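Input (structure):
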């Protein structure tokens, strides 16, 4: 069931394809499910009984936006767990979104997560997500993706805001609704547009009941830089980690119990049925090991690696970093540490990760945010507190986190996959 890790160039091209195919958490989860099925994993369903065998791979989805995959080697062995998240900061369409004013058709949006808003202006935007429709008398979920550019958020010309370059502010309610069309004789309406889009898959659609739709940048992910040093893309935080974790799962040997979890809603706190603070992962593990005694003993010897991007030191803003903790792109994965448990790393889990890096000859770095600045968080503390499992937070160094287009190193994802694949195979974590 395992396959060899792709060479660097092929790996990056495959990563770019994954990013392009995954404009929303629903599409990212569908992409991962498709890859797992192709690798011989069996899909399980939460409302059905599970018949599990050792030396076999399985996966289960929740809400179409979170996924847990696992390789069951030997139920008596501890677990090697990896985790990431499927969501990214973006503009999400409101329920009653259609707006027509001054001759233009627009959609009202909410800001999902901690979005860096300025880069969203003047981009070619498309729309994707999940629609629930009544089809053949039943409620069905339909994935949609317009793929082509259908909208933009136009900037106000500098002539009308002479202070734009020195003191620009962005009003989330009034400045962000994207423009989709000029209103003609027939009034534009989102429900009608969605009906037409769903009919491409189901001619018998009767009505649109609800939707979760997200705007995204249509510019393709790319390898860039004078020497091809960088990967530029939307949603590197945190689809890069999803891809890395999935490749580590599939390229590692079959000797150990391996769990890979990608949850939704991390960017808004992870508090949901399918988020890291919800019971999805715990429910899955409970169904594999129903005995509380067996499960607790396994967890005592298990380890979780939470994979989420880290802030690379920025050459134009180096003063925003602690001078001894400025990770550099393409210089290895970053161990993230925070005294207030915004990251779950402790000295034991850091030591294990460093040894795993040493085993495969990959350099590592450390990140601590400046003491006078706030610190973000990850799924690491949520899973550590829920499962009671030793956990470390790590990730690849990144520029422009939470922008519409982020930048990471073209070597870092591949090197991290080597590390995580070895972690999945390592017989003893303390050797």
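Output (sequence):
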């Amino acid at each position: 069931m395992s396959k060899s890790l792709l060479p660097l160039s092929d790996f990056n091209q495959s990563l770019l394809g994954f990013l392009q195919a995954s404009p929303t958490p629903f599409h990212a989860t569908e992409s991962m499910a498709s890859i797992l099925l192709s690798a011989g994993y069996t899909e399980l369903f939460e409302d059905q009984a599970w018949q599990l065998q050792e030396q076999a791979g399985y996966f289960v989805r929740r809400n179409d936006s979170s996924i847990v995959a696992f390789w069951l080697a030997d139920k008596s062995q501890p677990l090697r767990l990896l985790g990431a998240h499927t969501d990214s900061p973006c503009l999400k369409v409101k329920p009653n979104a259609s707006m027509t004013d001054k001759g233009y058709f627009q959609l009202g949006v909410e800001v999902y997560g901690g979005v860096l808003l300025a880069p969203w202006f003047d981009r070619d935007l498309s729309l994707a997500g999940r629609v629930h429709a009544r089809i053949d008398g039943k409620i069905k979920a339909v994935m949609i993706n317009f793929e082509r550019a259908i909208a933009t958020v136009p900037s106000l010309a500098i002539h009308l805001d002479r202070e734009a370059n020195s003191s620009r502010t962005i009003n989330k309610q009034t400045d962000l609704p994207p423009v989709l069309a000029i209103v003609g004789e027939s009034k534009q309406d989102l429900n009608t547009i969605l009906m037409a889009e769903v009919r491409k898959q189901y001619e018998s659609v009767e009505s649109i009941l609800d939707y979760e739709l997200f705007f995204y940048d249509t510019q393709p992910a790319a390898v860039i830089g004078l020497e091809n040093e960088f990967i530029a893309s939307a949603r590197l935080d945190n689809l890069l980690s999803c891809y890395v974790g999935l490749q580590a799962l599939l390229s590692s040997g079959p000797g150990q119990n391996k769990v890979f979890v990608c949850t939704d809603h991390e960017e808004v706190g992870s508090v949901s049925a399918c988020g890291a603070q919800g019971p999805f992962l715990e429910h899955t593990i409970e169904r594999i090991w129903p005995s509380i005694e067996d499960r607790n003993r396994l967890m005592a010897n298990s380890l979780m690696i939470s994979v989420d991007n880290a802030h690379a030191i920025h050459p134009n803003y180096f003063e925003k970093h602690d001078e001894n903790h400025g990770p550099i792109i393409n210089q290895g994965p970053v161990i993230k540490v925070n005294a207030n448990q915004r990251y779950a790393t402790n000295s034991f889990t850091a030591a294990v990760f460093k040894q795993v890096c040493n085993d495969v000859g990959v350099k590592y770095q450390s990140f601590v945010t400046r003491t006078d600045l706030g610190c973000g968080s990850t799924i690491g503390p949520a899973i550590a507190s829920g499962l009671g499992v030793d956990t470390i937070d790590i990730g690849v160094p990144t520029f422009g986190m939470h922008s519409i287009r982020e930048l990471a190193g073209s070597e870092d994802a591949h090197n991290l996959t080597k590390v995580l694949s070895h972690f999945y195979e390592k017989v003893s974590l303390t050797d």
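Notes: The CA atoms of residues 36 and 59 lie 8 Å apart. The chain has two domains: 8-88+234-425, 90-217.
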